[in-house]
Amino acid sequence: MQQKTYVYRLLMGLSLGLLVLFQAYWLRSVYREQKELLEADLDNLFTQNIRNLQDSLFRENWIAMRDSMVRRATILIDRPDTPKADDKPVVQVVAVGHDTGSMENRDKKSFPHHVRQREARLERRKRFFINNVNTFKGKASEDGAMVGFFNKKDTLHIETLRNSLQEDMDRAHLSFPFALSRHDTVPDIESDPGIVTYHSGGFPPIHLYLVSFSSYEGYLFTRIAPNLLFAFFLLGITSVSFNTIFRSLRQQQKLALLKNDFISNITHELKTPIATVSVALEALQNFQGINNPERTREYLNISQHELQRLSILVDRVLKMSMFENNALQMHTERFDVKKTLEKVMQSMGLQFERAHARVALHVGEGDFFVEGDSVHLTNVVYNLLDNALKYSPSHPEIQISLRQANEQVLLSVQDNGVGIPEEYQKKIFEQFFRVPQEGQQHNTKGYGLGLSYVAEVLRRHSGSIEVSSQAGQGSLFTVTLPKTQPSK
Asked: What is the DSSP track for 159-201?
């Protein structure tokens, strides 16, 4: 059974481990997806701010927009080596505008969310930026031109871009810091731990504007909070379910062991009185015991006692089954506990003699009438005395006390037996439970039903039972029943 329990624990542990791994993989995927979405949103936000500022700068310095789809920057270049027919400067229009095919049309497509697609998009921007710089510088060098219109004022102002980006982030409820910078060459962004995006800008677009967003993890965790809560809930409910199933399984295993012990013990209990009666009858029949009246009377008393014991045992088992199904009926009547106690002690006289027990009865003043089922309450008294005798060493000493207090009848049975350890004193009233003895083996035969039967009978009579005991120093059981006044 221990091996089975280990296997069950191993399987449940593996199941929970696999569930945790799956949830970790799932949450990581959700986190990466949310990060990619955030990267896309921030990239769109930054790109839109760059374009808005470029449009503003364009309107301030140029009036040269042909339509809403194509934007061109006009470069005025004075070429002194060109023949002058009318002594007017030759104006050459050089288009150094945006790559409409790769940049403008990109907005018409759905924004890709995959990391490799984003890296490819940034790579295209880098090549576009390098081409713009090389084109502008090459054209100026080739024609010996002097840029007369472009100057430092035609670049985008960092503070203006920062304020505009911050306002858009506030409107989008993105509350994490960012760092903004401008470069004339492509910077190394591999070592930046944040979300980095860049875009070319200015007229001509020979500057690279780069933004790095940091401390965004908290925002992402708020985005995946429902997923986290669901994962924790699923893990918690699975753990509770496994624990409940395992505890139920352990309880069933314990119950199976107790029932097996019960079957073994009750078989012995049933065989003992049958064997005793069989021996007594055989002695009377085969050894002329019937010719000896004294011996005949003794054998008949033994047989009667054993048959009574067998009847009580069978009746107790049947009644416990009826208790479980709530089918047992109580026949209430008023009777005297004192007379019932004396009757039980008289019927157990032979057992006391065999065990060389010293039994003392102490009866207080007053009457001891109660309302209840006399058969069941008689069995309660028999159980307590039988246990005191059974679990005591040689020459048992049993003290029986009957008294009344606060309109209640109190019956106490004290022995000098093996006692009950404190950790088992609440469990002894459970069905099939027996206090473990040396080596987990019971030297005294029993079936773990007596005290559970006693507790159930007293509960149905509005009474109670308490135990006070120490291992090796005996036990004291106290039964309390509500008292009734005798009829006049």
From this structure: HHHHHHHHHHHHHTT----EEEEEESS----TT--SEEEEEEE
